[in-house]
Amino acid sequence: VLAESGGLRNRMIAVDIPGYTQDFERLSRELGRTWNAFLRGQIIIFFIAIIVYAVVLGVLGVHYALSLAFMAGLARFVPYVGPAVNWTVLVLVSYFQVFKLFGLSPFYYTLLILVVAIVIDQIFDNMVTPRILSDALKVHPAAVLVAAIVAANLFGLLGVVVAAPILATATLLWKYVMRKLLDLDPWPEEEPTQPAPPPGSRFFV
User: What angle do CA 42, 138, 78 make, to 5 degrees?
Assistant: First the structure.
């Protein structure tokens, strides 16, 4: 196989269908960009969330700060439901623990932790995540939530993690098939001539 492909990865599997070769090559590149942007970007977001939550919760004196931070990182994979579960656990832990920062009452201390968690998640949703992923998926968060529920029933935890890129892949294939059936240009937008920057690079620009 290596001898026939000349040692090149992009020639390992060659599909040569008259009239569709260029389409398949473009489709392969588009799918590669989508999955690379998501997987690398989500890993970066996951670790950033863990670091931020670990530091903030540790400063605020919340027990099990590292475990809660890890859970907050996992929550970034599932829109809406993930942060809501994270907030619920934070409320329960902060309310029933003995130590309260500044001697606050359980209610006000829990309220402080909840407000801080909501602010952090809002920053992630509106600033960090869009910059890191660079709008590569181009799918609505609500659609990702539905896809995550379906994928969780079919594939378990792994399905939840990869629900977003699977949905983006299905959307891309659907648009391609429909435009071909309607005799339209399947690629109305020009393909980027330069490779996309690594996920997370725009966050520091």
Answer: 40
H-only helix segments in the chain: 2-5, 21-59, 65-75, 81-96, 106-123, 129-133, 141-155, 157-161, 163-181
pLDDT digits (tens, 9 = 90+) for 85-104: 999 999 999 999 888 888 88
Cβ atoms 177, 24 nearer than 8 A: no
User: How much is the pLDDT for 81?
Assistant: 80
The pair of three-digit structure tokens given for residue 7, joined into one six-digit string: 């040692």
Q: Rounded to 5 degrees, what angle do the CA atoms 135, 72, 170 make?
A: 35
Could you tell me if 186 and 23 are in contact, meaning their C-beta atoms sit under 8 angstroms apart? yes
Place of tokens 């240009």: 185
Query: Residue 118 in contact with residue 21, Cβ under 8 Å?
Result: no
